[in-house]
């Protein structure tokens, strides 16, 4: 979990290392000749080097934190279901049959689809509960096109569910529609959530 990694980095690992770099005093007391071999861990100090040391340590720690944060972000496959799009948003790939097109003249953007079961559908509280096959209306996201789609067509759609959407109409939206070949068989059944 990203916050656990950051907590570890802050509490011990990175800042402890930075403190060690800043407080480390393994500098040689006198400047050896050019041919002399330095003992292990001994660094010949100069005024410039002493002034840069805290800055270099701070840059090293900052770089490590940025890398840590970058590695924690981005979409990834969810263990709970769907494809994670953000903090609590998931996208499901679903097949179904178009029952009703939106009435675009009236400003309607809802596509009614009888869809197959979504086995890995995740509830608002994060439980994988599945969603049985049913006919229901889904809001079309602005980027979703249904050009060339007619009632009776078999389609594959991307359903984005964001339980934290501020606008209730954006909790579940179709973001992409793709027509499937005629004769594609659909399986209308009850959901079978993984592990149940």
What report would you give on this structure?
- There is one protein chain.
- With about 200 residues, this protein is α+β, with helices and mostly antiparallel strands.
- Helices cover about 25% and strands about 25% of the residues.
- The chain is built from 2 helices and 7 strands, in the order H-H-E-E-E-E-E-E-E.
- The chain has a 5-stranded mixed barrel with strand order 3-4-5-7-6.
- A hairpin with a 4-residue loop joins strand 2 and strand 3 (about 90-100).
- Residues about 1-30, about 40-50 and about 55-80 have low confidence and may be disordered.
Observed structural traits:
globular; disordered N terminus; 196 residues; 2 helices; 7 strands; alpha+beta; 5-stranded mixed barrel
Blueprint (SSEs and pairs):
Blueprint lengths: L1 H22 L23 H26 L3 E2 L5 E2 L4 E12 L9 E6 L18 E7 L13 E9 L9 E8 L17
Parallel strand pairs: 5-7
Antiparallel strand pairs: 1-2, 2-3, 3-4, 3-6, 4-5, 6-7
Helix pairs in contact: 1-2
